[in-house]
Specification:
The complex is a heterodimer of chains A (about 80) and B (about 290). Chain A is mostly beta strands. Chain A has strands at about 1-5, 10-25, 30-35, 40-50, 55-70, 75. Chain B has a single domain (about 30-245), classed as 3-Layer(aba) Sandwich (Pyruvate Kinase, Chain: A, domain 1), CATH 3.40.1380. Chain B starts with a helix and ends with a helix. Classes of the chains: A mainly beta (about 80), B alpha/beta (about 290). Strand 4 (about 40-50) of chain A pairs parallel with strand 6 of chain B, so a sheet runs across the interface.
């Protein structure tokens, strides 16, 4: 179980509990699962695919950015 | 002494002015709230960016980032002057323009100066000054969002990278609270490397993907563009705050004026009645003598 937040300067695009997130990393797409090691990665523009804890899937498109993963909390700065 | 009708007309005109200023005050209060919301929405984003930067700041000395940090000999200056689109906000615009003009005349005297105005008032002022003007973003405050601000930021970064400018400075009002704005001019580029190294935050043992330097290459332009956005939001909130205060004062002044006009009106009315009575009495006395 992880907490995901997708922030833009204008508003928060997503905030909630998730079980898996697939991110468009600068060096290729990658997935973050529970208990991932602390990570900072740059992102290119693409789609963030979210597997929510309640079973619903969602996707959010971003224009590049940076992601920080720390203690099961993921923050995407789009 | 003014006659009754003149005073009545003035009372009518002051009353309608007061209604306008009161309405403008209310409108500004609403717009101020919206602008403040924008600032609040942006804050967690900026904080997180800085938090990540704090973990990377030990690697900013690499060559590929030198562009952003290395001070150059100052020949070409870009001033980004953020004002409002409309007036009636007290000395808000005058202050910004005065500060910018001071930079032109003193700090950067003799240099080739280009002004990039954001907000029509600044654009109007600098159109009459002997500086180069880049007016393409003067209306960017209408429907301001991060996309617009980032486009301006990108433009400045591109021009700076091309070597068009050696130093870029922002002049704008920082928002403190509804009644207070802090007039600020800060150097935007090149960045003071020590200030960026001084950004502190919790250091975590991160994995960096693809590498620290590549993340920094993406992060620093983003931080700079966020700074442009923040200045614009601050200026917008300050503008509405300043207008609210100015309109509040105008409403009060109109109230004062109305009060003295009403005294005047009553005095004139009284005088007219007195004259009338003495005329009647005089007439009656003349009749009874006859």
């Amino acid at each position: 179980m992880m907490h995901l937040e997708i922030l833009t300067p204008d508003k928060s695009l997503f905030s909630g509990e998730v079980s898996a997130v697939t991110l468009p990393g600068a060096a290729g797409e990658f997935q973050v699962l529970s208990n991932h090691a602390a990570l900072v990665a740059s992102l290119q523009s693409g789609i963030v695919r979210i597997k929510q804890s309640n079973g619903h899937d969602q996707s959010v498109s971003i224009e590049g950015g940076v992601v920080e993963v720390l203690n099961n909390s993921i923050v995407v700065l789009a | 002494m003014a006659n009754l009708k003149e005073v009545r007309i003035r009372i009518g005109s002051v009353t309608s002015t007061q209604q306008i200023t009161k309405a403008m005050k209310l409108v500004s209060a609403t717009k101020l709230r919206r602008a403040q919301n924008g600032i609040t929405q942006m804050r967690p984003y900026a904080q997180k960016l800085n938090g990540i930067l704090a973990n990377l700041s030990d690697s900013i000395d690499v060559d590929s980032l030198k562009l952003y940090f290395e001070p150059k000999e100052v020949k070409n200056v870009l001033l980004v002057v953020i004002t409002s689109d409309r007036g009636l906000c007290g000395s808000f615009n005058a202050n910004v323009v005065k500060r910018a003009n001071l930079l032109v005349k003193e700090k950067y005297a003799g240099k080739q100066i280009t002004v990039l105005p954001i907000g029509k008032k600044g654009a109007d002022f600098f159109a009459k000054q002997p500086v180069q003007l880049l007016p393409q973003y003067k209306e960017a405050l209408q429907g301001l969002d991060s996309t617009k601000a980032f486009a301006i930021g990108q433009y400045i970064l591109d021009e700076f990278a091309k070597g068009q400018f050696d130093v870029v400075e922002l002049v704008y009002n920082q928002f403190k609270n509804a009644a207070t704005q802090v007039l600020t001019n800060e150097q935007f580029l090149p960045i003071d490397a020590n200030a960026m190294k001084a950004v502190t935050g919790k250091k975590n043992d991160y994995l960096f993907e693809p590498s620290k330097v590549e993340i920094l290459e993406a992060l620093i332009p983003r931080i700079l563009k966020t700074q442009v956005f923040r200045s614009m939001l601050d200026s917008l909130a300050s503008e509405h705050g300043a207008r609210m205060v100015a309109m509040d004062k105008a409403t009060d002044n109109a109230g004062e004026l109305l009060k003295s006009l009403k005294v005047e009106y009553n005095r004139v009315r009284q005088a007219a009645i007195t004259t009338e009575i003495s005329e009647i009495v005089g007439g009656a006395a003349a009749l009874s003598q006859a």
